[in-house]
Amino acid sequence: MPPGGYGWWYVDAISEDGQHALTIIAFIGSVFSPFYKRSGRRDPLNHACLNVALYGPKARWAMTERKRDAVSQAADSLQIGPSSIHWTGEALEITIEERDKRLFNPFRRPVRGTVRVIPEIVNPTAFALDPGTKHRWHCLSPRAHIEVDMKEPGFSWNGSAYLDSNFGSESLEEGFRIWHWSRAHCSSGAVVCYEGVRRDGSSFASALRFARDGTASAEAIAPVAALPRSAWQVDRRTRSDSSRASVIRTWEDTPFYSRSELETDLLGERVVAVQESLDLNRFKSPVVQFMLPYRMPRGD
User: Under a CB-based contact definition with an 8 Å cutoff, are residues 109 and 152 in contact?
Assistant: First the structure.
């Protein structure tokens, strides 16, 4: 990981009954860390964290940044503080040992458990998000099965999941102004839409269909579907064959970022999608940078 760079591994999932959902993101060179930004981003490994967000009953949210002494890497594993990620050859196993963080509440509840992500589709190809290849996205498994066993809070569930990774040699805000991303499972496999505006003002938009054998093919991108702004007035957008999409629930709502569960029409089907919108001009603002440490503490 070069100075100034970043990497993350991202999982999202929805339970079979639709009551629970989660996202787990392992960061090195944490892209949203105010501490990494203030340091001049000289040492990505000194700013690592495991972000765990549990949605639905017994919700939790944890994101404690760790210093380099608490981080270790190998070809098939990553240790971040007391939590770890390990690739077994057939599944990604995540051991979670964190504490949640709530605004204006000093009591931090434990977040403990294990998660197994078993790929159903594996994609070997990474894609550049900019002409200079400073930002790369690799959809590792556009469709996967997940097994969740949380000790704190206590619940277990199975469901459908998605796994990808992103890597960059510069900060997100140097490369982009805004982006919108969504993924959905469909009968033929999965589809991912990526679009936004780069820092130089150029736009990009793509839709990729992933077949059951992992083959990726470019699709004609569907029309823009209007979505309501988030409570923080973040502009959200997605794509739909019918220009018709609706928000089932908003998972994350912050001054610069939102993550939502949607219904939309893609590839001739009505599908459930996970969607994100990111405003990096807002992220750069002094007010947001002042607020972030209250949500993302730095530990040992």
Answer: yes
Q: Which two tokens stand for residue 45?
A: 């490994």
Q: How far apart are the first and last CA of the chain?
A: 21
Say if residue 193 is exposed, middle or buried (CB neighbours under 10 Å; 0-12, 13-18, 19+).
Answer: buried
Question: Residues 194-204, buried b or exposed e (16+ Cβ, 10 A)?
Answer: bbbebbeeeee
Inter-residue contact 183 to 160 (CB < 8 Å): no
For 284, list phi and psi in degrees, rounded to 5. Answer: -75, -15
Give me the sign of the Cα torsion angle 245, 192, 224, 6.
positive
- The CATH superfamily holding the domain 6-295 is AttH-like domain (2.40.370.10)
CA 282 to chain centre: 18
58-98, pLDDT tens digit by residue?
Answer: 999 999 999 999 999 999 999 999 999 999 999 999 999 99
**Sequence spans of domains, the chain:** 6-295
What letter would DSSP give residue 289? H
